[in-house]
Amino acid sequence: MPIFKCPQKSEPLWKEWDKKAQKNGLRHQVFSVNGDHYVGEWKDNMKHGKGTQVWKKNGAIYEGDWKSGKRDGYGTLSLPDQETGKYKRVYSGWWKGDKKCGYGIQFFGPKEYYEGDWCGNQRSGWGRMYYSNGDIYEGQWRNDKPEGEGMLRL
């Protein structure tokens, strides 16, 4: 009586390679085609958790929390200083959906900065602006401009 063996069913190679390429958990540097790179945690092929992104075009660095591929949570954005070559902080604070949202500090220059509430990348709510000439505005903001009750100290 002849014996017939059924060939084992095997998955195509591309399926195995695709499984290995899926990004979940902590990863070392992952580069984009444009030269940007990211080091940090992943979930379902998206930046998720703690991580650091470096943009090649302008040299910006973001260190902080990510959610579903977007900056979300607490983080710091820094840019390189053209004169010294060192990085200087531009914004430290809360993010939501890749935009400044919640409490944060934005640095406009060495002696000029804003600390307060943000909504959709704009100063909105209570905040205090320190100007380079020594003036200080403390009060309400809306759409990135002082509006409502506030006090300007000259």
TrEMBL record:
Compartment annotation: Cytoplasmic vesicle, Secretory vesicle, Acrosome
SUPFAM superfamilies reported in the protein's UniProt record: Histone H3 K4-specific methyltransferase SET7/9 N-terminal domain
InterPro entries listed in its UniProt record: MORN, MORN3
Keyword hit for Repeat: yes
One CC-aspect GO term: acrosomal vesicle
Role: Assembles a suppression complex (suppresome) by tethering SIRT1 and MDM2 to regulate composite modifications of p53/TP53. Confers both deacetylation-mediated functional inactivation, by SIRT1, and ubiquitination-dependent degradation, by MDM2, of p53/TP53, promoting a proliferative and cell survival behaviors. May play a role in the regulation of spermatogenesis.
Assembly and interaction partners: Interacts with MEIG1. Interacts with TP53, MDM2 and SIRT1; the interactions mediate post-transcriptional modifications of TP53 by MDM2 and SIRT1.
Name by which UniProt lists this protein: MORN repeat-containing protein 3
